[in-house]
């Protein structure tokens, strides 16, 4: 087994990386296994923030370290919450955050939105692997799978919210699934 540290405290992400990487022979570790590190995510893009997280953890453990910065962009809300997806309406749970987004979207006919994921990996160079899942914002929340904004994001291939998809279905089309495919191609090419 090869070990890989995902520099995240988000349990939803950890679960998805386990589903994506463990069948391929990687043991997935996360920040709960190491001492707390303060990370200032002050980048302007998903890629910059992913690199900031990966760099902060890189020397704290002796294995491949990757970091994931991701979020939801909604066209009718000027691409909000975007890189602020985790901090949006800070202190509230996702039932509330999703409710507020649906209220803000009440009269919007342009429902286009996308999930974006940037995975950073640092070896002798810096690498960022990106994935995007295009979709629309639902009118009502639906589904209990996944995490975060999944209940309000409709995936066109299934005509269901990503919270109504099985893990396998979501990973087959998701931003994280696509970025992970690119990461895996790199790891394979470099025998990592
Ligand atoms: P780490 O920085 O510790 O990885 P975080 O949750 O703070 O955890 P981000 O800054 O990358 O991570 O914020 C990502 C947010 O975007 C996440 O908290 C969700 O609200 C949302 N998000 C990202 N991917 C998602 C997905 O697949 N499904 C639903 N929501 C997602």
Distinctive features:
192 residues, alpha+beta, 30% helix, 27% strand, globular, binds inosine 5'-triphosphate
Topology:
Elements: E1 2-6, H1 11-21, E2 26-30, H2 46-58, E3 64-74, E4 80-81, H3 94-104, E5 112-122, E6 126-137, E7 153-155, E8 160-161, H4 167-173, H5 175-189
Parallel strand pairs: 1-2, 1-3
Antiparallel strand pairs: 3-4, 3-5, 5-6, 6-7, 7-8
Tell me what you see in this structure:
The chain is built from five helices and eight strands. It has helices at 11-21, 46-58, 94-104, 167-173, 175-189; strands at residues 2-6, 26-30, 64-74, 80-81, 112-122, 126-137, 153-155, 160-161. The mean pLDDT is 96. The protein is an alpha+beta fold. Strands 1, 2, 3, 4, 5, 6, 7 and 8 form an eight-stranded mixed sheet that branches. The structure holds inosine 5'-triphosphate. Inosine 5'-triphosphate is lined by residues 8-10, 13, 53, 68-72, 85-86, 115, 146-150, 174, 176.
């Amino acid at each position: 087994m090869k070990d890989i540290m995902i520099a995240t405290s988000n349990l939803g992400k950890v679960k998805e990386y386990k589903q994506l990487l463990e069948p391929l022979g990687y043991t997935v570790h996360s920040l709960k296994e190491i001492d707390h590190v303060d990370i200032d995510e002050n980048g302007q893009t998903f890629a910059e923030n992913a690199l900031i997280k990966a760099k902060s953890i890189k020397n704290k453990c002796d294995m491949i370290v990757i970091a994931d910065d991701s979020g939801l962009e909604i066209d009718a809300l000027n691409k909000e919450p975007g890189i602020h997806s985790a901090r949006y309406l800070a202190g509230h749970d996702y039932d509330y955050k999703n409710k507020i987004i649906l209220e803000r979207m009440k009269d919007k006919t342009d429902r286009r939105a996308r999930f974006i994921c940037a995975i950073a990996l640092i070896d002798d160079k810096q690498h960022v692997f990106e994935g995007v899942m295009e979709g629309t914002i639902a009118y009502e929340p639906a589904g209990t799978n996944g995490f975060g904004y999944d209940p309000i994001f409709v995936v066109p291939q299934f005509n269901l919210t990503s919270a109504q998809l099985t893990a396998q279905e979501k990973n087959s089309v998701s931003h994280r699934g696509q970025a992970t495919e690119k990461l895996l191609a790199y790891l394979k090419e470099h025998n990592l």
